[in-house]
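Input/output pair, single chain:
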Amino acid sequence: MSSLALAVRDSSTMLRRNLLHARRYPSLTLNLLLTPVVLLLLFVYIFGDVMSAGIGGGGADRSDYIAYLVPGLLLMTIGGTTIGTAVSVSMDMTEGIIARFRTMAIHRPSVLIGHVVGSVLQCVMTVILVGAVAVAIGFRSTDATVLEWLAAFGLLVLFALALTWIAVGMGLISPNPEAASNNAMPLIFLPFISSAFVPVDAMPGWFQPIAEYQPFTPAIETLRGLLLGTEIGHNGWLAIVWSLALTVLGYFWSKASFSRDPK
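Output:
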């Protein structure tokens, strides 16, 4: 078999392995999925009227805040799902299976590729589930064209790929799964200091640069523009640049960490 065929075969095997792990241990995925769903319901039904009135400067209308909130929650869902990837990679590193793989005649990067592809698929599925809940409670995207829906889906997949590679790197350098979970917490914490819940302009002046110059805010504003027809401006190319930069950084970081001889 050619090198490419071996790489595809071994990567497919590792992908099946990771999907089986996710099916056998659903509690981690379920916990990460419940977080954005609970936040969605909390902010819509508890804070929705007040937040909508504050953002719009007029009367309270919960449907307006649902439309504003959902794009940020979808990207937050991706960040939360990739925490499970960091934990899964760390478990492989600490339980000895990686040491076993190193002795086998397999395509070594296939171990990481299986984790990455499996995580991206999980991200897509959890985003669909959260999106379904959002539609059930009133979210609508009637102004988006087919091309805008495809662009929105592409952005979500690209962002999931970027965060997954970062999460893989965090899992590889963590001494245990608990540390991996803690190291990956910024992936779910950053959306809280972005434009996911309130506009950047509504934040204190000293805090606005923190919210603006981070990867989640341009991605959220781009997704919001695609789904709701709001202005995207320079956020589109910023979201792409951030995603590609994080993907490249995470890939080479993970590759270097995985290739390092165990101590």
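The radius of gyration is 19 Å. The chain has a mean pLDDT of 84.
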